[in-house]
Structures are given as structure tokens and as C-alpha cells.
Amino acid sequence: NTSKAAVLGLTRCMAQDLAPRGIRVNSVSPGTVWNANNERFHREALGLDRAAAEAAPDHGGKFLLRRFADPAEVAAPIAFLLSSEASFIT
């Protein structure tokens, strides 16, 4: 995905530029997250529940893990990156 590659490049440049000041820069690029809006769209517009959407080749089937992310799966690594345990990650 072009936009994710751009974010990754920007993140790397900012990390290199800001590391000497002790500022860490990270990004998380989770892909599509299954939330209320996604659920409503798939149910109302496409007639699909989560399992059917994940199995559809043009939806979940195009993701490496063949499924949508849960919000908690995105929040957990972000919380880690914000913690002191990740103080050397940039």
C-alpha cells in the first residue's frame, strides 16, 4: 500500500532526525479494524457478518492473516510503545 509505505518512510526519517534529542518516533499500521462502523457497513451494504466478510476474497481474504484486526489488538502495541518498556524502540 503506497500510503503505508509513505508513513513508514516518514517515520524512519523522523526517528533518525529526532533520536539525538531523545525523542522516539514509531508508527503502527494495522490494516482494517473491525469496529461498529465496519460491522454496520458489511451488514447493511453487503449483507455480510464478520466471518463472511473475512472469508470473502475481496475483503478479509486479501489480508495476510485473513481476518480483520480487533481494536484491542491495535491498542496493545500502541500502549507498549508508549510505555517505559519500549524506551529503546524508535
From TrEMBL:
UniProt-listed SUPFAM superfamilies: NAD(P)-binding Rossmann-fold domains
Pfam families, per the entry: adh_short_C2
Alphabetical UniProt keywords: Oxidoreductase
Domain of life, per lineage: Bacteria
Gene Ontology molecular function terms on file: oxidoreductase activity
InterPro entries, sorted: NAD(P)-bd_dom_sf (IPR036291), SDR_fam (IPR002347)
Similarity field: Belongs to the short-chain dehydrogenases/reductases (SDR) family.
Protein name in UniProt: SDR family oxidoreductase
Species in which this protein is naturally found: Streptomyces sp. SID7499
